[in-house]
Design brief:
The chain has 407 residues and is of the alpha+beta class. Helix content is 26%, strand content 12%. GO terms for molecular function: pre-mRNA binding; U6 snRNA binding; zinc ion binding.
Length: 407
């Protein structure tokens, strides 16, 4: 079934306790999961007036089961037609299903503050997000093979697959539901059946900003309809599943669908500008900061430093731009690889410390000639004296290096 994510098994481990602390809840198979850390860099000024960088690493808590595995059931949708379409996961033929007459409230809702955490999927790059976690009904917790957290800008997937690993289609469904289309990037959700109040805009913004950074919110108060646009497409996909058949501050049952193309020319101009900014931000993250500052003209002294350092001690010689940029890129990659190797060693060596590591790194050492990885290797280096070679034994001369084959 292309649209439906593979459901987790319904076997219930006997060690799950939903009343315990989420940070300590685990199963018998969760020992293989390596706890991940979140890193925060803070720049401070010490008493001597020097700027230092303080790196704070904290452990992430394990994800907890959202429902009791013994009560988790996977049921097929109600038969509203004569033929079941496995690609769209819906019935077709016969009587047409009326969405407004089949208003069924969602059984549960995801709470990011308490339900999110690391799972087995955090050890595998490119893992997809858990569809059942978004709906608030995942029973596996830390043993789930999908991600239990919100999508970020670094979570990038092919255009024909959504963040849950489901295949997109060439066109939208007639009711603008389902997975969506791969022919355009849709970040806007249509929210219908909203209870009309005086503070409807505040209510919609408060509930939908929980699923990611919101770019724009538009509310049609008289019709009880809202349009929410997210900065990231993956967040809009996550929010669509998380808020389907949910309620806001009242007992309404929301109708969450994909929004159609906005015919306003201003909207098309905003979308083109956003794509340009997104491409520029990706380039900034892929290149060294000093190189970006030179291109954007924010570091006028960079050209002078290059002329002095690029001579490599030779009078009148100045390295070409391609040689200089290759050297900067190599130094930047070595430093990045060294930081990643140190983080991996710290993750493997740490048992369960949750707090400040107190790693104070002077800013002057970060911009030195040697990278941090090289300095760390030199600290553990111990010079050893080489053994003396034995004295040559005196004896008769021999034919060494002769051209004669007999030697």
């Amino acid at each position: 079934m292309a649209e439906v994510q593979t459901p987790p098994p319904t076997t219930a481990p006997a060690t799950i306790d939903l009343t315990s602390d989420p940070a300590t809840t685990s199963t018998s198979t969760s020992t293989a999961v390596v706890p991940l850390v979140t890193e925060t860099t803070v720049t401070e000024t010490n008493a001597e007036g020097k700027k230092i960088k303080k790196i704070i690493r904290r452990k992430r808590r394990p994800a907890r089961p959202q429902v009791d595995p013994a009560t988790f059931k996977t049921e097929a949708p109600a038969a509203t037609g004569t033929i079941f379409n496995i690609w769209y996961n819906k019935w077709s033929g016969g009587d047409r299903e009326d969405k407004y007459l089949s208003k069924t409230a969602a059984p549960s809702r995801c709470v990011i503050a308490t339900d999110s955490g690391y799972t087995k999927a955090d050890k595998t790059p490119g893992s997809y997000f858990c569809l059942f976690f978004a709906r608030g009904i995942c029973p596996k917790g830390v043993d789930c093979e999908y991600l239990h957290r919100l999508p970020t800008v670094t979570d990038i997937y092919p255009s024909n697959i959504d963040c849950f690993g489901r295949d997109k289609f060439s066109d939208y469904r007639d009711d603008m539901g389902g997975v969506g289309s791969f022919q355009r990037q849709n970040r806007t959700l249509y929210i219908g059946r909203v209870h009309v109040t005086d503070d409807i805009e505040e209510i919609v913004a408060r509930h939908f900003q929980e699923w990611g950074q919101v770019e724009r919110t538009r509310v049609l108060t008289a019709r009880g309809v809202a349009f929410v646009t997210y900065m990231n497409e993956a967040n809009s996909q996550f929010a669509k599943e998380a808020m389907a058949h949910q309620s806001l501050d009242h007992n309404e049952i929301l109708n969450v669908r994909w929004a159609t193309v906005d015919p306003n020319p201003a909207a098309a101009k905003r979308e083109a500008h956003r794509i340009e900014e997104q491409a520029a931000e990706a380039i900034r993250k892929a290149l060294p900061a000093s190189y970006i500052a030179e291109i954007e003209g924010r570091d006028p002294e960079q050209k002078k430093r290059r002329k002095i350092e690029g001579g490599f001690g030779l009078d009148g010689y100045e390295a070409p731009d391609d040689v200089w940029h290759a050297k900067e890129k190599a130094d930047w990659e070595d430093e990045k690889e060294g930081r990643a190797r140190q983080d991996q060693l710290m993750i493997e060596a740490d048992d369960g410390y949750d707090g400040d590591y107190g790693a104070l790194i002077p800013a002057q050492q970060q911009n030195g000639i040697l990278s941090s990885a090289t300095l760390a290797a030199l600290k553990g280096y111990t010079a050893t004296s080489t053994a003396k070679r034995p004295a040559p034994v005196t004896g008769p001369l021999v034919g060494y290096g002769s051209d004669d084959d007999s030697d």
